[in-house]
Amino acid sequence: MDELYGAGVALVTPFHSDGTIDYPGLEKLIEHQISGGMDYLVSLGTTGEAATLTADERKAVWKFTATKAAGRIPLVAGIGGNNTAEVARQLETFDHEGYTAILSVSPYYNKPTQEGIYQHYKAIVAASPLPLILYNVPGRTGSQISPETTVRLANEFGRIVGTKEASGSFDQFSKIMRDKPDGFLLISGDDPVTLPMIALGAAGIISVIGNAFPAAVARLAKLCLENQYAEARKIHNQLIRITELCFAEGNPAGVKAILEELGICGAAVRLPLVGASDRLKEAIRAELAKTGTL
């Protein structure tokens, strides 16, 4: 899956102030990513607030994204959940034209055992029309995909091509890198650890802050993959504070506030999320004034 090396971005879903989807804003965001040199786009991951979209809205966003990207950049669709049969049904009916792979989060809330996680992915990869990327984010799901389960899935199912790792555990990352089959991609799921994860052997990042600063994130990933770490560290250091602000009040409220300041799209989110506080917005303005647009 060479298309998934480098920097991907977990796109936000822009909303109007009345809560409806802002398609002109989404189109502007897509163009911002492509012109900024992003390597691929992820539509309707966690950052896209997929949990608050209806089934019809999700289909419309996927279709719109594929139409506007028009084959210029690889696309990944986020399709996951904690009802295995329902996830399989969504995958079977997914219009995958224009898409390269599926990103599927580990089942949340249910807290399955490792065998349950294994059986979940075994079932959904059989239903998927495209290669599958695991997504381990225990801070949101309440459970962990162990390195052993990750490697077991990678070895047994050739169409499971990678994992987005947002566990924050370098012990976990190291064990996956040590034991995974050749070609299986370890992808960073946290912006602040992009540089050290690629140094360990990761294929790149699926970024949140890249919504706002695609050129910087794409350049950072490229430099790391080329072992140019002295230059990469400069970008890494430039991104530290704005990334900290991005997540200070949760995702995607922070990055949407940044996008509004940059004139890309509005900052509206859907309940139960709320928008960034005035205090955070002021801190974002101050940091942007100091650093520019990176």
UniProtKB/TrEMBL annotation:
CDD domains assigned: DHDPS
Residue positions of the active site: 135, 164
Keyword DNA-binding appears in the UniProt entry: no
Enzyme class: lyase
Keywords recorded for this protein, A-Z: Amino-acid biosynthesis, Cytoplasm, Diaminopimelate biosynthesis, Lyase, Lysine biosynthesis, Schiff base
Residues annotated as site: Part of a proton relay during catalysis: 46, 109
Pathway: Amino-acid biosynthesis; L-lysine biosynthesis via DAP pathway; (S)-tetrahydrodipicolinate from L-aspartate: step 3/4
Keyword Cytoplasm set for record: yes
Residue numbers marked as site, L-lysine inhibitor binding: 51, 82, 86, 108
HAMAP family according to UniProt: DapA
Name of the protein: 4-hydroxy-tetrahydrodipicolinate synthase
Organism field: Parapedobacter koreensis
Taxonomy of the source species: Bacteria, Pseudomonadati, Bacteroidota, Sphingobacteriia, Sphingobacteriales
The gene coding this protein: dapA
